[in-house]
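Quick one, tokens below. Sequence please?
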């Protein structure tokens, strides 16, 4: 599952982002449930619509920015339509995902509130 779309922050490192927008604003964008960062410009080389692997997706369906709420809304249909039925058939499913898409699934599966999910940390996998 793709990581959330960080919009206009894509391509910046954390230090540059804090210098440009301030630590409080960056913290709000990174940890809040429903505050997206500024949108990415579609002319940016980082916009997924400029990557051939997304050519089959209509441009209007490619996000310009996402908050965690948007990431949940994007990933849950795949969970419900593809992963859950496969598990129900006894299949083993491997999910390769990033922290925010995992946080979104965890919120859904464990019934975690919007306020509580902002403090949940997903550790980086260790091979």
């Amino acid at each position: 599952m793709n990581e959330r779309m960080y919009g206009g922050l894509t391509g910046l490192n954390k230090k540059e982002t804090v210098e440009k927008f301030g630590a409080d604003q960056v913290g709000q964008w990174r940890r809040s449930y429903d505050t997206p960062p500024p949108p990415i410009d579609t002319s940016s080389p980082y916009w997924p619509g400029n990557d051939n692997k997304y050519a089959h997706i209509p441009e209007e369906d490619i996000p310009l920015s996402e908050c965690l709420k948007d990431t949940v809304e994007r990933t849950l249909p795949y969970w419900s339509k593809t992963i859950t039925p496969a598990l129900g058939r006894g299949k083993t499913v491997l999910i390769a995902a990033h922290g925010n898409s995992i946080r979104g699934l965890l919120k859904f599966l464990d019934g975690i509130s919007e306020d509580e999910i902002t403090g949940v940390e997903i550790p980086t996998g260790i091979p």
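The chain has one domain: 7-117. Helices lie at 14-21, 23-31, 68-88, 99-110, 114-117.
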